[in-house]
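Hi all, long-time lurker, first post. I run a small reading group and we've been trying to get comfortable going from sequence to structure in the token notation. Rather than ask abstract questions, I figured I'd post a concrete chain and ask someone more experienced to write out its structure so we can walk through it together at our next meeting. Sequence below, copied exactly:
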Amino acid sequence: MFSCIGVGAEKPTVTIYTEQFPPYNFSNKGQLQGINLDIVRTLCERTELECKFELLPWTRAYSLVQKNPLSGLVSTARSPERESLFQWVGPLVSSRTYFYRLAKNNHIRPVNLAQTANYTLGLVRGDVYEELIQEIGFEKDKNLLKFAHHYEYINLFFKNKIDLILGSEQTLDYQLQQFGYGGKEVVKLVELPVDKLQGNYLVFNKAIPPEIIERFNQELAALKAFDNLKLYRQRYTNE
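-- Answer (accepted) --
Happy to help. Here is the structure in token form:
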């Protein structure tokens, strides 16, 4: 199946990298799970592709999937800059993205996107939102502070050292629960339009045969036709 990339007759194992991005993909007591990871696991089974999953920091996972010919990555936002780097399966499940502040910080009241740039924002280095927020007016080391991991800027946010964080309607509660918060401590502000990103995808290294990508997309279409992925969303949300 993968003889074109030198694997030979033996059925290869493809490593699917992922990051801590609940509820889409995350580690729960050592078990990798999540809406999109569960979908990808099903797609691997239905296409009879041997897959193993590995949780890594985002920047490392994003780098490795471009180097390892037998690899993929989930969940990955699709953008024009990334289009030619990978082969794409999706879209999977995603949700709308907003700026949030601490509930006690009543003085932080942006009413539009332009006004959000009057405050400080924390973000992971290499985050796909970087370009979008720079277009709004955020500048590195001025009002945009970049970190290696989510927990670094979330800790500073709750210590009132950073004014704003970004989160989606489905992911933020999961992220905050990891720090002992339930979501009532934050207030949803202005929506960040992310249409340019086209949602979350599974991407594969370009060495993976195109027929594999086609089969994955066909099986995903079949899952969507059955219940629009509702079964997978219900496992992790109140839908």
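A couple of things your group might point at:
The two ends are 39 Å apart (CA to CA).
Residues 3-8 have pLDDT under 50 and may be disordered.
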